[in-house]
Design goal:
alpha+beta; seven-stranded mixed sheet; 14 helices
Length: 335
Protein backbone atom coordinates (compact mmCIF):
# COMPACT_ATOMS: atom_id res chain seq x y z
CA UNK A 1 0.00 0.00 0.00
CA UNK A 2 1.37 3.40 -1.05
CA UNK A 3 -0.14 6.84 -0.43
CA UNK A 4 0.30 9.97 -2.49
CA UNK A 5 -0.79 13.58 -1.96
CA UNK A 6 -2.80 14.61 -5.01
CA UNK A 7 -4.90 17.29 -6.62
CA UNK A 8 -5.38 20.91 -5.66
CA UNK A 9 -3.15 20.82 -2.60
CA UNK A 10 -0.10 19.80 -4.67
CA UNK A 11 -0.98 22.45 -7.26
CA UNK A 12 -1.31 25.15 -4.62
CA UNK A 13 1.95 24.23 -2.92
CA UNK A 14 3.77 24.51 -6.26
CA UNK A 15 2.23 27.96 -6.69
CA UNK A 16 3.39 29.02 -3.23
CA UNK A 17 -0.08 28.95 -1.67
CA UNK A 18 -0.84 27.14 1.59
CA UNK A 19 -3.60 24.57 0.83
CA UNK A 20 -6.71 24.56 3.01
CA UNK A 21 -6.70 20.77 3.14
CA UNK A 22 -4.99 17.82 1.50
CA UNK A 23 -6.37 14.89 -0.46
CA UNK A 24 -4.62 11.54 -0.76
CA UNK A 25 -4.86 8.58 -3.12
CA UNK A 26 -4.03 5.07 -1.97
CA UNK A 27 -2.53 2.56 -4.41
CA UNK A 28 -2.40 -1.18 -3.84
CA UNK A 29 -5.00 -1.45 -1.10
CA UNK A 30 -8.60 -2.53 -0.57
CA UNK A 31 -11.59 -1.26 1.46
CA UNK A 32 -11.10 -4.07 3.95
CA UNK A 33 -7.44 -3.21 4.50
CA UNK A 34 -8.23 0.48 4.95
CA UNK A 35 -10.89 -0.23 7.57
CA UNK A 36 -8.57 -2.64 9.35
CA UNK A 37 -5.96 0.15 9.50
CA UNK A 38 -8.45 2.39 11.32
CA UNK A 39 -9.71 4.51 8.40
CA UNK A 40 -13.41 5.41 8.47
CA UNK A 41 -15.34 4.88 5.20
CA UNK A 42 -17.35 7.90 4.02
CA UNK A 43 -17.60 7.40 0.25
CA UNK A 44 -21.05 6.73 -1.17
CA UNK A 45 -20.17 5.94 -4.80
CA UNK A 46 -16.52 4.86 -4.40
CA UNK A 47 -14.16 4.06 -1.49
CA UNK A 48 -13.13 7.25 0.30
CA UNK A 49 -11.94 7.16 3.90
CA UNK A 50 -11.09 9.58 6.69
CA UNK A 51 -7.69 9.22 8.31
CA UNK A 52 -8.13 8.21 11.97
CA UNK A 53 -5.93 11.08 13.22
CA UNK A 54 -5.76 13.89 10.63
CA UNK A 55 -9.33 13.37 9.31
CA UNK A 56 -8.01 14.06 5.81
CA UNK A 57 -9.60 12.17 2.91
CA UNK A 58 -7.91 9.09 1.46
CA UNK A 59 -9.41 7.56 -1.69
CA UNK A 60 -8.49 4.25 -3.29
CA UNK A 61 -6.97 4.67 -6.75
CA UNK A 62 -9.72 4.16 -9.29
CA UNK A 63 -10.75 4.47 -12.90
CA UNK A 64 -14.17 5.55 -14.13
CA UNK A 65 -16.35 5.05 -17.18
CA UNK A 66 -19.32 7.10 -18.36
CA UNK A 67 -22.55 5.12 -18.00
CA UNK A 68 -25.37 7.68 -17.89
CA UNK A 69 -26.34 11.33 -17.77
CA UNK A 70 -24.99 14.06 -15.52
CA UNK A 71 -22.56 14.05 -12.63
CA UNK A 72 -23.60 10.67 -11.23
CA UNK A 73 -23.60 8.81 -14.55
CA UNK A 74 -20.34 6.91 -13.93
CA UNK A 75 -19.20 3.41 -13.09
CA UNK A 76 -16.06 3.15 -10.98
CA UNK A 77 -13.45 0.44 -10.90
CA UNK A 78 -11.00 0.02 -8.06
CA UNK A 79 -8.76 -2.75 -6.84
CA UNK A 80 -5.06 -3.08 -5.91
CA UNK A 81 -4.09 -3.33 -9.60
CA UNK A 82 -5.15 0.27 -10.42
CA UNK A 83 -2.00 2.38 -10.72
CA UNK A 84 -1.34 5.96 -9.71
CA UNK A 85 -1.12 6.94 -13.38
CA UNK A 86 -4.52 5.30 -14.03
CA UNK A 87 -6.01 7.42 -11.25
CA UNK A 88 -4.39 10.66 -12.44
CA UNK A 89 -5.65 10.05 -15.98
CA UNK A 90 -9.29 10.45 -14.88
CA UNK A 91 -8.69 13.93 -13.40
CA UNK A 92 -9.91 17.15 -14.99
CA UNK A 93 -6.89 19.42 -15.53
CA UNK A 94 -3.19 18.71 -15.89
CA UNK A 95 -2.43 21.10 -13.02
CA UNK A 96 -4.66 18.96 -10.79
CA UNK A 97 -3.10 15.67 -11.96
CA UNK A 98 0.20 16.00 -10.13
CA UNK A 99 0.99 13.67 -7.22
CA UNK A 100 3.65 13.77 -4.51
CA UNK A 101 5.02 10.74 -2.69
CA UNK A 102 6.13 10.46 0.92
CA UNK A 103 9.67 11.55 -0.02
CA UNK A 104 8.43 14.73 -1.73
CA UNK A 105 9.03 13.41 -5.24
CA UNK A 106 6.55 14.72 -7.82
CA UNK A 107 4.81 12.38 -10.25
CA UNK A 108 3.58 14.43 -13.20
CA UNK A 109 2.69 12.23 -16.20
CA UNK A 110 0.68 14.96 -17.99
CA UNK A 111 3.14 17.86 -17.65
CA UNK A 112 1.04 19.83 -15.21
CA UNK A 113 4.14 21.65 -13.93
CA UNK A 114 4.73 23.08 -17.42
CA UNK A 115 1.13 24.31 -17.51
CA UNK A 116 1.57 25.91 -14.08
CA UNK A 117 4.67 27.70 -15.37
CA UNK A 118 2.89 28.82 -18.55
CA UNK A 119 -0.37 29.59 -16.72
CA UNK A 120 -2.50 27.27 -18.82
CA UNK A 121 -5.69 25.41 -17.95
CA UNK A 122 -5.50 22.23 -20.03
CA UNK A 123 -7.61 19.09 -19.86
CA UNK A 124 -5.87 15.79 -19.05
CA UNK A 125 -7.88 13.96 -21.71
CA UNK A 126 -11.05 14.20 -23.78
CA UNK A 127 -12.85 12.44 -20.92
CA UNK A 128 -13.18 15.95 -19.41
CA UNK A 129 -16.48 16.27 -21.31
CA UNK A 130 -17.97 13.20 -19.63
CA UNK A 131 -18.63 15.16 -16.43
CA UNK A 132 -20.67 18.30 -17.28
CA UNK A 133 -20.02 19.77 -13.82
CA UNK A 134 -16.40 20.26 -14.87
CA UNK A 135 -17.43 23.03 -17.25
CA UNK A 136 -18.85 25.05 -14.35
CA UNK A 137 -15.96 24.10 -12.08
CA UNK A 138 -13.54 25.45 -14.67
CA UNK A 139 -15.01 28.90 -14.10
CA UNK A 140 -14.62 28.43 -10.36
CA UNK A 141 -10.89 27.82 -10.76
CA UNK A 142 -10.61 31.26 -12.40
CA UNK A 143 -12.03 32.85 -9.24
CA UNK A 144 -8.96 31.82 -7.21
CA UNK A 145 -6.45 34.65 -6.85
CA UNK A 146 -3.48 32.44 -7.72
CA UNK A 147 -5.16 30.98 -10.84
CA UNK A 148 -7.18 34.01 -11.98
CA UNK A 149 -4.68 34.99 -14.70
CA UNK A 150 -4.47 31.50 -16.26
CA UNK A 151 -5.74 31.07 -19.82
CA UNK A 152 -7.87 28.21 -21.12
CA UNK A 153 -6.44 26.26 -24.03
CA UNK A 154 -8.40 26.26 -27.33
CA UNK A 155 -8.90 22.50 -27.02
CA UNK A 156 -10.49 22.88 -23.59
CA UNK A 157 -12.70 25.73 -24.81
CA UNK A 158 -13.96 23.42 -27.54
CA UNK A 159 -14.76 20.75 -24.96
CA UNK A 160 -16.75 23.26 -22.87
CA UNK A 161 -18.76 24.08 -26.01
CA UNK A 162 -19.30 20.36 -26.58
CA UNK A 163 -20.67 20.00 -23.04
CA UNK A 164 -23.03 22.93 -23.62
CA UNK A 165 -24.30 21.50 -26.91
CA UNK A 166 -24.84 18.05 -25.36
CA UNK A 167 -27.57 19.36 -23.03
CA UNK A 168 -26.01 17.46 -20.12
CA UNK A 169 -25.95 20.57 -17.94
CA UNK A 170 -29.69 20.05 -17.50
CA UNK A 171 -29.03 16.75 -15.71
CA UNK A 172 -26.81 18.23 -13.04
CA UNK A 173 -27.93 18.28 -9.42
CA UNK A 174 -28.84 21.79 -8.30
CA UNK A 175 -26.98 21.13 -5.04
CA UNK A 176 -23.75 20.38 -6.92
CA UNK A 177 -24.12 23.49 -9.07
CA UNK A 178 -24.80 25.68 -6.05
CA UNK A 179 -21.73 24.24 -4.29
CA UNK A 180 -19.51 25.37 -7.19
CA UNK A 181 -21.11 28.84 -7.35
CA UNK A 182 -20.91 29.33 -3.60
CA UNK A 183 -17.23 28.34 -3.54
CA UNK A 184 -16.58 30.92 -6.26
CA UNK A 185 -18.47 33.51 -4.18
CA UNK A 186 -16.00 32.91 -1.34
CA UNK A 187 -12.94 33.38 -3.55
CA UNK A 188 -10.99 36.51 -4.44
CA UNK A 189 -12.45 37.07 -7.93
CA UNK A 190 -16.01 35.67 -8.09
CA UNK A 191 -16.74 37.99 -11.01
CA UNK A 192 -14.34 35.93 -13.14
CA UNK A 193 -16.50 32.87 -12.49
CA UNK A 194 -19.70 34.64 -13.56
CA UNK A 195 -18.09 36.23 -16.60
CA UNK A 196 -16.85 32.80 -17.68
CA UNK A 197 -20.36 31.39 -17.23
CA UNK A 198 -21.89 34.23 -19.27
CA UNK A 199 -19.30 34.14 -22.05
CA UNK A 200 -19.68 30.38 -22.47
CA UNK A 201 -23.48 30.42 -22.14
CA UNK A 202 -23.44 28.12 -19.13
CA UNK A 203 -25.92 30.28 -17.20
CA UNK A 204 -29.04 28.32 -18.15
CA UNK A 205 -30.92 26.90 -16.41
CA UNK A 206 -29.16 27.84 -13.20
CA UNK A 207 -28.57 31.58 -13.33
CA UNK A 208 -31.05 32.81 -15.96
CA UNK A 209 -29.26 35.32 -18.18
CA UNK A 210 -27.11 37.13 -15.65
CA UNK A 211 -24.99 40.02 -16.85
CA UNK A 212 -21.21 40.30 -16.95
CA UNK A 213 -19.71 41.88 -13.84
CA UNK A 214 -16.82 44.25 -13.18
CA UNK A 215 -16.42 43.13 -9.59
CA UNK A 216 -18.00 42.89 -6.15
CA UNK A 217 -17.74 45.53 -3.45
CA UNK A 218 -18.59 43.04 -0.68
CA UNK A 219 -16.03 40.64 0.75
CA UNK A 220 -18.74 38.57 2.47
CA UNK A 221 -20.15 35.82 0.24
CA UNK A 222 -23.74 36.26 1.49
CA UNK A 223 -23.69 39.95 0.61
CA UNK A 224 -22.18 39.13 -2.77
CA UNK A 225 -25.37 37.21 -3.53
CA UNK A 226 -27.30 40.40 -2.73
CA UNK A 227 -25.08 42.37 -5.11
CA UNK A 228 -25.52 39.79 -7.85
CA UNK A 229 -29.27 39.86 -7.43
CA UNK A 230 -29.47 43.65 -7.40
CA UNK A 231 -27.20 44.05 -10.43
CA UNK A 232 -29.47 41.67 -12.34
CA UNK A 233 -32.76 43.41 -11.46
CA UNK A 234 -33.46 40.96 -8.63
CA UNK A 235 -33.38 37.89 -10.82
CA UNK A 236 -35.03 34.93 -9.16
CA UNK A 237 -32.43 32.22 -8.46
CA UNK A 238 -35.12 29.60 -7.99
CA UNK A 239 -33.15 26.91 -9.85
CA UNK A 240 -30.47 26.70 -7.17
CA UNK A 241 -31.01 25.89 -3.48
CA UNK A 242 -29.97 29.14 -1.84
CA UNK A 243 -29.76 28.93 1.96
CA UNK A 244 -32.59 30.69 3.80
CA UNK A 245 -30.24 33.38 5.18
CA UNK A 246 -29.28 34.43 1.63
CA UNK A 247 -32.90 34.36 0.44
CA UNK A 248 -33.80 36.60 3.37
CA UNK A 249 -31.07 39.13 2.54
CA UNK A 250 -32.15 39.25 -1.11
CA UNK A 251 -35.79 39.71 -0.08
CA UNK A 252 -34.89 42.61 2.22
CA UNK A 253 -32.73 44.19 -0.48
CA UNK A 254 -35.58 43.96 -2.97
CA UNK A 255 -37.89 45.71 -0.49
CA UNK A 256 -35.31 48.43 0.11
CA UNK A 257 -34.96 49.01 -3.63
CA UNK A 258 -38.72 49.65 -3.83
CA UNK A 259 -38.58 52.54 -1.35
CA UNK A 260 -38.48 55.83 -3.27
CA UNK A 261 -38.97 59.37 -1.99
CA UNK A 262 -41.73 60.07 -4.54
CA UNK A 263 -43.63 56.91 -3.72
CA UNK A 264 -43.17 55.94 -0.09
CA UNK A 265 -45.78 53.41 0.96
CA UNK A 266 -46.44 52.80 4.64
CA UNK A 267 -46.89 49.10 3.90
CA UNK A 268 -43.35 48.94 2.46
CA UNK A 269 -41.86 50.44 5.62
CA UNK A 270 -43.92 48.24 7.91
CA UNK A 271 -43.09 45.03 6.02
CA UNK A 272 -39.36 45.63 6.51
CA UNK A 273 -39.65 44.76 10.22
CA UNK A 274 -36.92 47.30 10.84
CA UNK A 275 -36.33 46.55 14.52
CA UNK A 276 -35.88 42.87 13.77
CA UNK A 277 -33.89 43.30 10.56
CA UNK A 278 -31.88 46.43 11.33
CA UNK A 279 -28.50 44.67 11.25
CA UNK A 280 -29.20 43.06 7.87
CA UNK A 281 -30.56 46.34 6.49
CA UNK A 282 -27.42 48.23 7.49
CA UNK A 283 -25.19 45.49 6.05
CA UNK A 284 -27.01 45.79 2.74
CA UNK A 285 -26.80 49.59 2.76
CA UNK A 286 -23.03 49.35 3.33
CA UNK A 287 -22.71 47.93 -0.18
CA UNK A 288 -23.59 51.30 -1.70
CA UNK A 289 -25.82 49.72 -4.33
CA UNK A 290 -27.24 52.07 -6.96
CA UNK A 291 -30.58 50.27 -6.91
CA UNK A 292 -31.54 51.82 -3.56
CA UNK A 293 -31.49 55.26 -1.85
CA UNK A 294 -29.10 54.77 1.08
CA UNK A 295 -29.68 58.21 2.64
CA UNK A 296 -33.45 57.90 2.52
CA UNK A 297 -33.48 54.40 4.00
CA UNK A 298 -31.02 55.33 6.74
CA UNK A 299 -33.27 58.22 7.74
CA UNK A 300 -36.30 55.92 7.79
CA UNK A 301 -34.47 53.46 10.05
CA UNK A 302 -33.46 56.20 12.51
CA UNK A 303 -36.98 57.67 12.64
CA UNK A 304 -38.53 54.23 13.01
CA UNK A 305 -36.30 53.39 15.97
CA UNK A 306 -37.50 56.57 17.76
CA UNK A 307 -41.12 55.44 17.68
CA UNK A 308 -42.36 54.03 21.01
CA UNK A 309 -44.11 50.96 19.64
CA UNK A 310 -44.14 49.30 23.07
CA UNK A 311 -46.80 51.76 24.22
CA UNK A 312 -49.16 50.38 21.57
CA UNK A 313 -49.40 47.11 23.48
CA UNK A 314 -51.74 48.82 25.94
CA UNK A 315 -54.35 49.34 23.20
CA UNK A 316 -56.87 46.86 21.85
CA UNK A 317 -56.00 45.28 18.45
CA UNK A 318 -58.03 47.66 16.28
CA UNK A 319 -56.78 50.77 18.07
CA UNK A 320 -53.24 49.42 17.98
CA UNK A 321 -53.41 48.93 14.20
CA UNK A 322 -54.82 52.40 13.54
CA UNK A 323 -52.35 54.10 15.87
CA UNK A 324 -49.45 52.29 14.24
CA UNK A 325 -50.58 53.54 10.84
CA UNK A 326 -50.77 57.10 12.22
CA UNK A 327 -47.25 56.81 13.66
CA UNK A 328 -45.91 55.60 10.32
CA UNK A 329 -47.70 58.40 8.49
CA UNK A 330 -46.03 60.83 10.85
CA UNK A 331 -42.67 59.20 10.06
CA UNK A 332 -43.26 59.62 6.31
CA UNK A 333 -44.16 63.30 6.81
CA UNK A 334 -40.68 63.92 8.28
CA UNK A 335 -38.80 62.60 5.26
Amino acid sequence: MKTYQVGGSVRDELLGVEPHDKDWVVVGSSPEEMIEAGFRPIGKDFPVFLHPDTKEEYALARTERKSGKGYHGFKFYYDPSVTLEDDLLRRDLTINAIAKDSQGKLIDPFNGQDDLLNKKLRNVSNAFCEDPLRAIRLGRFLSYKHISDFSITPQLKAIVKKILDSGELNYLSSDRVFAEIDKAMQNHFPEKFFNFVVENKLDKPWLKDINSLDGFSASNSDLRWVELSCLNHFTDFDQIPLPSKIKKLISIAKQLANIEIDNILIENIDSLRILRNEEDIMRILSLGLECMDQNLITKIVLLYKDIKFAELEKLDPNERKNEKINLLKDLVSKL
